Amino acid sequence: MDKLKKGDQVVVITGKDRGKQGEILKRGEDGKFLVQGINIVKKHTKPNPAIGATGGILEKEMPIQGSNLALLNPATGKGDKVGFKILDDGRKVRVFKSNGEVVGA
User: Fold this and answer.
1) Rounded to two decimals, what is the model's pTM?
2) Smallest Cα–Cα separation from 80: which of 98, 104, 94?
């Protein structure tokens, strides 16, 4: 079970986008995450008339390392560490370390 999943609200804890919040759109194989509105770069593209693509400068999101992200705790509004707990019915769930609440419950 992973600490961060697609659809989670996260906050950046280090780097140029420190303090910004966003939603995880995609997870890469190498532990990097694509987060909405985070780590935006400018990409210069050439026009390609064969496929009808126009050239110019595009802004796109690039992956960010998972260690630079923290799960957003809705109770406190801050980033929080995540742990795991086994419930009485045998399910394994993610919990916030600060207050012990189940993530997404």
Assistant:
1) 0.84
2) 98
